Amino acid sequence: MADNMTKRIVAESCAGAIIDVQDFFLSQLGSRSARGRMERNIVSLARLLDYFRIPMIATLERPVPRKGALPTALKHQLGEAKLFEKDFFDLTKEKKIRDHLGRLKKKQIIVAGCETDVCVLQSCLGLIDLGYTLFVVEDLIFSSARNVEAAIARMRAEGAVFLTYKTLYYELIQAVSGGRRADAMIAAFGPFPDDLPDQAG
Q1: Across all residues in the chain, what is the average pLDDT?
Q2: Structural domains of the chain ordered from first start
Q3: CA-to-CA distance for 131 and 76, rounded, in angstroms?
Q4: Strand ordering across the sheet containing 133-142
Q5: 135: which of 14, 67, 109, 122 is 20 to 30 A away, CA to CA?
Q6: What would the mean pLDDT of 168-176 be, rounded to a whole number?
Q7: What stretch of H or E contains 177?
Q8: Can you tell me the mean pLDDT for 149-156?
Q9: Is the pLDDT of residue 1 over 50?
């Protein structure tokens, strides 16, 4: 695909990667309300991807006893999603993760998680090196650093596409239903959950 061609999300070509959403990193968001909001938004992302049968992976940075597990609500929502521990910032440097993604035979990866300027950045660079098209949900990535503009600029320069949760929500609906949020989707996936928000809170 030429670099100047429009990159659109194709639901059946997608996988999701939720990177290092752990207590240690969430605690650096500051207020309890900011942490709660990020947790709820990432759970909404997992629910959205699950509805469209988009397979997901989640990673935990080691040492997990110090960095923490996934929040309970997120772990519950991910259900059968593959959970991997990692020693590298770049998730693709873990052979088990790289091999698992390869077996999924997906070309596009939707990315959320932490930290924008470390594990998200390095993982995105690694995934792009492997030939994946990256869609980074910009309001669902976070970091302890205040200034992550350079990391975002680098990801964009390497070809990562940034979009909001709201844009992702409606683009997935458009991709599978032609914009008619009814018959085609219900036939393929069942009733759409009425309580799933269409934008990050």
Answers
A1: 93
A2: 12-182 (3.40.50.850)
A3: 31
A4: 82-86, 56-61, 14-19, 108-114, 133-142, 161-163
A5: 67
A6: 90
A7: helix 165-177
A8: 98
A9: no
